[in-house]
Design goal:
YjiS-like; DUF1127 domain-containing protein; mainly alpha; rod-shaped; single chain
């Protein structure tokens, strides 16, 4: 899994190139977050109802659990 540092507001560049770099970094972070949700949703969906119950979930909770992993 890739990790992106999303806590920095500036990546060392200023002006137009810094803003373009920021847009690219934001886009990459958005793609990584989307992929994390997708992987989590697929992993939980592959579990049986009994396995979900063991971790305190039901099938209806999968979407909310997957999306709650995203940190903005």
């Amino acid at each position: 899994m890739a990790a992106f540092d999303t806590t920095r507001t500036s990546y060392g560049s200023h002006g137009l190139f810094g803003r373009i770099g920021g847009l690219v970094a934001d886009f990459a972070g958005t793609i990584a977050a989307w992929n994390d949700v997708r992987v989590t949703r697929n992993a939980l969906s592959a579990l049986s109802d009994r396995e979900l119950e063991d971790i305190g979930l039901i099938r209806g909770d999968i979407d909310s659990v997957a999306v709650s992993r995203i940190r903005y």
